[in-house]
Every structure is written in structure tokens, then in C-alpha cells.
Fold this sequence. Notes:
The protein is mainly α and 193 residues long. It has a domain at 25-159. The protein has 8 helices and no strands. The protein has helices spanning 2-12, 18-29, 38-47, 52-88, 92-113, 120-129, 134-169, 171-192. It is globular, with a radius of gyration of 17 Å. It comes from Microvirga tunisiensis. One of its GO terms (cellular component) is plasma membrane.
Amino acid sequence: MLRRLxxxxxxxxxxxxxxxxxxxxxxxxxxxxxxxxxxxxVPMMLARPDKAWSYALICTVASVLGxxxxxxxxxxxxxxxxAWLFQLYGLxxxxxxxxxxxxxxxxxxxxxxxxxxxxxxxxTITSGFAGYHxxxxxxxxxxxxxxxxxxxxxxxxKFGPRxxxxxxxxxxxxxxxxxxxxxxxxxxFRYLF
Length: 193
């Protein structure tokens, strides 16, 4: 199933709608959708390395805009939607500790968590829930998400053919590692905060 998704995403890269689909996934992932944009971003960059940097920019802008939605979910709707999302992911206990960490480490929390496999939506919702300064949240989100997606673009533009060969030849292992990193992000959030 994952192999078909990978192949489909490679074929999607040539379509005119590809950047819109990527933007939608990036926006959604920052506020409520559980799947990271890398699922689309990496195959699209592999299929179209000439567009790696524009795909990184699309992901950055859409992710920050989605992050602002996540922030407002946390700020105004935590008791209903925000709490439901944290409960859905089994992270309600970690959310309270994370909220208190903002009093002392808010800038660092956003910078570090935006670069890790810890789902960014948890950072955005908790930033709103904690009442973190919106302006700083946006600036730090641009920095961290931009750095994250530009790093992927740099790797794909420099080592794309080699990475594609590794993925094609070891797809099951690569998929298992990606799933482990995804699940590990949720586990890390739950137990570190």
C-alpha cells in the first residue's frame, strides 16, 4: 500500500495540481491532519528536483498558515477542538506539562520542535493554548519550518538520485523507518513533556 502511495506521489509531481495538493497537506498537517507533508514532499522532489526549492517554499508558507490555524484552535477552542485532538492522540497529560514549559522555554520549544519528528500541530495548538505571543510564534515558525523544508530540498537537490535509488531498492526498510520516526514523535511528546 505504501509503495503504491509513493509511486502515485511520484506521478503526481508532473501534474499542474501537485503544488496545490502539497500546500493542502502542509497546511492541514500543521493544525489537525496526522500525516506529515514529507509523504508528498520527498517523492515530489525526487520526481522534479528542479522544483525542490519551490516545493520547500510552498511547504513553508502553507505550514506556517496552517500553524496559525492550529494556534487559534489552541487559543480559542482548546476546551472543545484542541482538547479533542490531544485526546485523540492520547497526549492530554503531556499537553499540560508542555503548556507550563512555555513560561520558561517558549522560544526554544517552538524552534526545536519544529525541526523534529514531533508533530508540529501539537506545537501550534499548545502555543495558542499557552497564550504564547502570536508575533513571535509566526516568526519562529517561519524560521523552523523554513529550515526544515529547505534542509529536505538541499538533500534532495544534492543527493536526489542516490536517495531515490536507496528508497527504490530498500522501500520496506525506508517506510518502516519513516513510520517509526512518525510514531516516535508522538511518543517523545508524550513522555518528554
